[in-house]
Amino acid sequence: MQTVSLREGFLGQKMLSLPKSTMSLLKENKVTKSFYISDLGHYPKAAHHFRYRKKGAKQFIFIYCTKGKGRVNLGNTIHIIEPNQFFIIPKNSTHEYKADDAEPWSIFWFHFDGSIAPKLYKRFIERNVTTYKNAPFSGSRIKVFNKIFELFQGSNQDAQLEYANLLSLNFISSFIYHDTELLNNDKNGDDLIESIKNYLLQNIDKNFTLDDIAKKFNYSKSHLHTKFKKKTGYPVMVFFNLKKIQRACEYLNYTDLSIKEISFKIGFQDPLYFSRIFKNFMGKSPRNYKKSHLK
Asked: How many angstroms from the chain centroid is the CA of residue 227?
């Protein structure tokens, strides 16, 4: 059973539900079947907005609040949603949501599903710490939403539907992964990590150990390893070897250097060891890599 407290809608609202025929196309389309939208809308100052679904919705529900506030009840937890905050309700889960009586929220919302939708929700849950649901306001996001709405409203052609759903994926992902961008812009510790990266890139022809790097930058190996991996996703030496192999790919693609010569130029004195490391990263030997790129 589902309950809606206000059926006549809200002044200035925008809402679209895609017809069954369109949904069937989206679920079969190779571009959109991994992620597609079934409903979307914008409810400005949605006074008395309330919905209760005992059996949940058949899709995931994304809610982004720009003004006012509201709440989402999910399980035994009440989530207060305020300006520049968002929330995702899992599908098939009992829930209710409600605009605040005194300061009713203004929200943008999507119903979405597809093969990657559960993975996106899992990522949201994994990263949903106290400050995570706060997404800085961006006027460009609102422009993207309006473009998505316009595309869905104006056409049922494959290309337009594909584009609208890809934009929708980008829109929702910009919230789920917004802290990744913040981490990239976080300068705390950046100077050290950037210095190490630049040092390694400038010395691709050298053969360092983690001890060498730790001594060079006056940190313990464990501390350096932890900071570097947290920032880049790679252990220091894996990163160094990856950059060596990427440089080797450049040599293989754009020069006539032999594999032995390339091995020496990137700091590997044993060409057989170089070939083994290359295959670990690229999935094929240097010789086969060069052949495949000559075709």
From this structure: 22
